[in-house]
Amino acid sequence: MTVRDAIIHYLDTAVLMQLATVSGEQPWCSTVFFAADNAHDIYWLSMPDARHSKELSLNDRVAATITWPHQYGQAWQGLQVEGTVKEVDTDEMEEYFQAYAERYNAHSRLSLIMSGEDPARLYRLKPSLFVLYDEQNYPTAPRQEWRPN
Description:
By secondary structure, the chain is an alpha+beta fold.
């Protein structure tokens, strides 16, 4: 399995991501349900008045982690991501909402968001770097990097 393939597998398997934002010199971390598309961009829904959403409007640079449940002593696996985030514009919503809708069977939610009945916003993380730490598949060199595009 290539590093790229392992990262795609983890993006397709995990559902929770810890998202780190910053305002001034104060960092903040939030947990969100996410989905990734075929271009390896990562999407989630959040309320626009959530702290991380407000911070994203001021600073689009983020870091994120994705981990799986482990028992102490097991080979560790995790994924770190850095990149930039933008709120998805209404005219692009249908195109970019697809990955999230398929993963969480949330197709009907799109029309509620588009009409304003659901105040959530869709956010898109464009990764510039993935760092995979995988002691199970890469025991002699567990830290692997991949830069998409």
